[in-house]
Every structure is written in structure tokens, then in C-alpha cells.
Design brief:
The chain is mostly helical and about 55 residues long. It has one domain. About 75% of the residues lie in helices and about 0% in strands. It is elongated, with a radius of gyration of 14 Å. The two termini are about 25 Å apart.
């Protein structure tokens, strides 16, 4: 119940974005490899930002 009003930190937001991008890349991998590769590149950039925050 205490987490109800707790705001997400920037690191948590980036982790959710990374997970979403990787999921989109996985779905696109069966239909459009080029878009899938772009999503993976975006996800890697997000991971680099997460690592700099740690």
C-alpha cells in the first residue's frame, strides 16, 4: 500500500522502457528484421543510460 503513492525513479522508468523495446523487437523479429534491429539498438542505448545511472 505504501507503493501506491511512490513515484518511479528514472532508473525504473528506463528499465520498463528497455523491457518494452526488447519485447517489440522480439515480436518484429518474425515479420520485419530491419525494424527489429532498430528496436534492439534503441534498447541498447537505454541500457547504456541505465548503467551510467548505477
Amino acid at each position: 500500500m505504501l507503493k501506491l503513492f511512490k513515484r518511479k525513479s528514472e532508473k525504473e522508468k528506463l528499465q520498463l522502457r528497455y523491457k518494452k523495446l526488447m519485447n517489440e523487437a522480439f515480436v518484429l523479429s518474425t515479420s520485419n528484421r530491419k525494424l527489429s534491429d532498430q528496436k534492439i539498438l534503441e534498447a541498447e542505448n537505454v541500457m547504456k543510460r541505465i548503467e551510467t545511472l548505477s
